[in-house]
Design goal:
This protein is α/β, with parallel strands linked by helices. It folds into two domains: 118 residues, 3-Layer(aba) Sandwich (Rossmann fold); 95 residues, Arc Repressor Mutant, subunit A, CATH 1.10.10.10. It contains eight helices and eleven strands. Helix 2 runs parallel beside helix 3. The model has no long low-confidence stretch (mean pLDDT 88).
Length: 227
Amino acid sequence: MKALIVEDDQDLRRQLFTQLSDKGYTVEECETGKDALFLGKEYEFDIAIVDLGLPELSGLEVIRGWREAQRDFPVLILTARGHWQDKVEGLESGADDYLVKPFQPEELTARLNALVRRAAGHSKPKLSFGPLTLDTVSRVVQLNGDEVRLTSYEYRTVEYLMMNAGKTISKAELTEHLYHQDFDRDSNVLEVFIRRLRQKLDPEQTLQPILTVRGLGYRFNPELASS
């Protein structure tokens, strides 16, 4: 999942960057409202974390600008303001949730995960398709109740595909949402991940969980039957 952090406090921004990266997010960051408005309009994100007190443009102005541009990724507001009026104003500007500083890292992660799941149409932290289960909290994938050992990149790939089950995901979209800027976009690394995932998720070759849509990309099969 790809997250945008908009925070002008450098220490907090780096803390958030580290925390989200450790949780498997691909993270972009900026410190001004103008930069945030540009990034949110020009690039795809799965979620954004926005401080209200930003230089150049306020967090509320940024969120309004995104929504006016039809950018509908979920937004979590960070605010030092505890008044209910400020929270209401943030939500009415187009934000989806808020968190008052200071906050516990675990609460931030839980709120982000919930927003991402709901945006993809999932209300529960566990996604189940036939014998395959993905726990977005523990970041564990199981096949018939047994854990499937995955690398970090493999987990990111299968999580994104399962979150968007039934939707055809292009290679460009998958790369954009899952991998950092230094990822070799011209290599066949993504194809290697997909091939390995198919072997790990479907060792008996009976489920076909990841389908190739010729010329378009990949699609996770939501209609899996138990083997």
